[in-house]
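Input sequence (278 aa), recorded before submission:
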Amino acid sequence: MARKSSSGEGTELSRALVALRSLTGLRQKEVEAQTGISQAQLSRIERGKSLPTPEETAQLARLYGADQPRIDELVQMTRDAKAGIRDTRLVVQRGNTLAMQQRWKRIEGEARVVRSYQPALILGVLQTVEYSSIVLDQPADSPVVEDRARRHERLIREPDRRHLLIQTEGSLRLRVGSPSVMARQADHLVETSRLANVQIGVIPESRIMDFTAGTGFHIYDDTVVVVGLEVAAATLTDPDDIRHFRALYERLSEAAVWGDEARALIERVRASLQGELG
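Predicted structure, C-alpha cell format:
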C-alpha cells in the first residue's frame, strides 16, 4: 500500500491525482466514462485506499493533461508503492531515474526555507562550475553541469527563498581539484554568504563535538527531508523523522560559526592555498 503522507488525507500519489483532476473540472463519473475505471474504484484511489495500476495512473494523468515528465513521475510512484518500496518512514530511490529527479527538483523549487548540512563536500547549491564538474565527473561545459549550475544559481538568488547552509571546515579543505579550483570555490562561498537570503555556517575543525552527523541532508520547509546516499537518496516525510533531522540541524547550527566569523574561517582556508597558487 502506498505511503501515507504527513499532512492531509490519502497518499502523495492519491492527492496528486485529485489535484490534477480538480484542475480539469472533471467529475468522477465523467472520468469513469472516458477511462473505464469505475467511480467506486476511482474514489478508493483518490482516498489512498486502493492503488491504481501503472497503466491506470498513466491513463488518468494523460486525461488530466499532465505533461510527460509528470506522468513518468506518477507512474514511478505507483510502481514503487506496488513493489513495497514505500513505507510510513522512507523512500529510497536512485537519483538517475527521471521520475525522482523531477520530484526532487519540484521539492527544491517549491521550498521557501531550505536547511542543509554537508560534512564532506561543498553543498551543490554552493558549488562553482569547476568544482561541480569534478563532483559529477563531467566536462565543465557539458549540458549536465551547465543545467545544474543554472538551476542552482536561480535557486540561491531567489530573494523569497531562504537558505540556511552548514558546512564543516573539513569539507572546505578537501581538495576537489587543483588549488586554483579550491581558491575560486572559497571566493564563491564568501560572495554567496553575503546574499541577503543566504546564511552559511561552518563547523570549525577545532570544535569538540559530543554528537556525530556523518551524512548530508536537506530539510525543505519542515515537510520533507532528503538524505544523500552514495548512489541514491532517501526521502522522508514522517513527522518524527522530520523532527529528528530538525533537532539535529539545530545542534549542528549551534556548533557552527556564522556571518563574519564564518567568512573569516573560509578566508583562512583560502590563505592556506596561497603558497601553492604561486
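Checked by second reader. Confidence is low (pLDDT under 50) at residues 1-8, 85-97.
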